[in-house]
Amino acid sequence: MLKDSLHRFKAEILHAWAHPTRIAIVETLRNGEMPAGSLIDQLELEQANASQHLAGLRAKRIVVNRKVGNQVFYSLRAPVLIDVLDILRRYCSLQLTDTMHMLEEIGPEERAQKMSDGADRDVLENRKPEETLA
Questions:
Q1: Across-strand partners of 68?
Q2: Domains of the chain: which residue ranges?
């Protein structure tokens, strides 16, 4: 079925993005082509790790590369993919905004009451559970 093929194709693209490093690579390439070395330096990646992620993005045809001398340059195959990441960023922002509104509605007294058992307070105060037992 054509519909199943399209769903599978979309899933493969999303699967290729299912790692923070790959998303960072795509976002870094938003402004255009970059040499692999610059990409690796900018994202502070290990060369082997970057190569593995770039190979995955190439295999799913998200990025393309070209070689000039001993340098390899990477760019997005279809810059429209940045629009997808921008929409996702807006979605995340909405989720965070909704959470902030809920926390404001709860109010400080109710939040303090919910944390009265101590475990949540330890998390907020950056204490590890074993530190509270001593």
A1: 71
A2: 2-78, 82-133
Check: CATH 1.10.10.10 for 2-78?
Answer: yes
Contacts of residue 111, Cβ cutoff 8 Å, sequence gap at least 6: 103
Burial 56-71 (b: 16+ CB within 10 A, else e): bbeebebbeeeeeeee
97, HSE (Cβ side, Cα atoms, 13 Å): 6
Per-residue pLDDT of the chain (134 residues; tens, 9 = 90+): 667 888 998 898 888 889 999 999 999 999 999 999 999 999 999 999 999 999 999 999 999 999 999 999 999 999 899 999 999 999 998 889 888 888 888 877 666 676 665 555 555 565 555 554 44
Q: Which CA distances in Å does 76 have to 31, 92, 123, 131?
A: 9, 23, 41, 48
Cross-strand pairs, 72: 67
